[in-house]
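Tutorial handout. Part one gives the primary structure; part two gives the three-dimensional structure as tokens.
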Amino acid sequence: MVLYAKDIVEMDFLSLPPETTVLEGAKAMKGSRHGFAVVGAPNRPEGIVTEWDVLSKVVAEGRDARTMTLGEIMSKDLVSIDAEAGLSMVSQTMAEKGVRRLLVKQGGEVVGVITAKTMLEHLNDYVDKVSAQIGRLQAPWF
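Part two.
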């Protein structure tokens, strides 16, 4: 029983154009209950903006969220993984790259996002299923 990125990917994620102001982006993130927004077209992202970007690059520096754009503060080094990658590769990539969000690609296009929260939720279910399967295999036949 192997769990793949495609099995846990969140296909419902927030995507906003780079010219969106930081204030509009923050309101959209709050409204959608996402702590991030993919910047650019959903299947062709240019960057990502997280709640940390808003705090560290705008609020902490006293900049105007009404005039700054997401394109100005987005992180352009996007980390992605193939939809066919196993759960261990997903967690290894997140740990090695130090990210809490991974873009999932299938056929070269972004199909969704895996977050650290999603990983933890699915990991618990996965461990439970594997443990149950091991228990059944170890049970006596009589």
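Part three, for discussion. The radius of gyration is 18 Å. The mean pLDDT is 90.
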